[in-house]
Amino acid sequence: MEQPLHRRPQRAVIRGFSLAALAFMLLLAASQTVQAHPADTYTLFTDTDGDGVPDHVDIDDDNDGIIDVIEDLDADGDGAPTTHPPDTDGDGIPDYLDIDSDNDGSLDNVEAQLTATYIAPCGIDSDGNGLDDHYEETPGSCGGLTPVDTDEDGIPDYRDIDSDNDGILDNVEAQTTADFQEPCGIDSDGNGLDDHYEEHPGSGDG
Considering the entire predicted model, what is its pTM? Predict the structure, then answer.
């Protein structure tokens, strides 16, 4: 009998048996079937953002408010968005799983919106589709954010390292001169955000 198990980032439990440190699941396909006992088959599902909604049914896998069909355009035209998905910053994490797609230290959720009208996520997903309620007009409408493109160059700000096209990188403009930090090039939790821009790896604080 196949029993689905929704996995949270580091720990999952099956009938009292603890499976610790399941970060390796990110290296597997959308789901992986394992045999725990000859009579029982369990399927472990990847849940990248740890919201309790497995990626294969989550319309916003990285929980940035931009739905996956926007971030993961079928660029290669094969009709399967998950094959060769865009990875703007080339860090090995496709944009639809990357909370900082252009690696400038500013979260996609922030860059996708205008500063004056910024709406933070509320942390509630009443219809269980993986998209925060603040980014749906009504639960189930599956709207999501419409990414801003400040300089109208065809590249949305969350993928543009110079979003206002003034010749100064966003990573520089977003910081004060006195406290400027360059990226360290390390992303220890694999969420797409450089460790220098997270208070604690995995916090998602940009």
Answer: 0.74
